[in-house]
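seq:
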Amino acid sequence: MMMPTRIRLLAAAVVAILVSGAATACSSSSSTGAAASSTTGANAAQGKTITLGILTPLTGPVASSFGQATIQGAQARIALANATHELPGGETVKLVSVDEGSSPQTSLAGTQQLVEHDHVFAVLAAGAFFYGAYRWAAQQNVPVIGDGIDGPEWNSSQYPNMFAAFGSTNDSYPSYTGMPAFFKSQGGSVYCGVGYNAPSTVGNGMAMVGSMKAAHVPVPYKNFGIVPGNTNFTSIALSIKQAKCDILGSQMTLGDTLSLITALKNANASLKATFIQGGYGQDLLDQPSSLAAAQGVDMAAGYAPSSLNTTATKWLMSALKTYAGWTKPYPAAGMEWGWFTADTAIKGLEVAGANPTQQSFISNLRKVTNFDHHGLTCPVNYAVFSDTNQQFPGNCTWMVKVQGNQFVSLTGTSPIKVVTIPGTSNS
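struct:
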């Protein structure tokens, strides 16, 4: 089986699930969104209805990271496009959904259902197991827009039909600038890195270690052999304290990272800065125990935090309120996957022109070099492959700190630019 490469911390949990042999889930299809008087076939859309299919885990061990929130995010973006008549030919977009389940086999079955039964124009692969379906999708030349967290197929020019919404990542895990300077600005001077014993988390962890060393920041301790779900972080916390690290970079899920940070507090270890992926989202703020443990903790936000109240964030939150009934201050974490894959698909339909075909979608979206998701991310270049640093959508990130019941931006409206150091590799 191909070894997946992942760009988010959800990936580590998925690795553990795959290794342990997760149960298979059945796929089911449902339709949401505005209906139109008639629907075109998959290969061409002529001023009527274009059907997009979203494939996301609704059941199984990783469903909590996706689920209905992912569908809500995609549906809100599509409903906005319909309401504001974004497509040049006046087409209406319809969304159908299928449960990806919890295995590459159910991902393939779900993809086949969307293409052969629902006759979708394109697939939104907002899940974790598409590496089981991409070869079949490529054979059909079906446009696929995904979160890109499941495997290196998103980063290969061999599959031009596949678009990673946040950019095609570099599987050599190069070192980079940007993050070391941020840590220094927070008063940090000594770095420790921890993570799971999975290929992607080791690669991401070592890339940050390499970046810190390139910036002349000492790295006296690193541990990328942690088993997911470790319930005792006392010894690791003591090792970090003994190493006198005041910067912590974690390649673990939010729950395990917060357990480690609690152990560090109990050991009276002081941190000036942290790097955590996968924490930004209303879900954290709604869980009292997690919120208490996360106070004062820094984490990455791959898109502009809604607390900034920029034109872009207001646009996003207004759409979620209007079309998903979402009234909380921040999006649910799962909404990210649905919104940004759908947003990329809408962009592809725009540039494909009136009466788009699947081939015009693929060809013209490949010419887009600076799509910033309407100001929510740094520009993504779909014309090239393997140009994006892992974990950093569009080669940048905002950093936020949990304070009270909100995420306070540490980077303002200008995210940290992450720039590859040429000739480096940490794979």
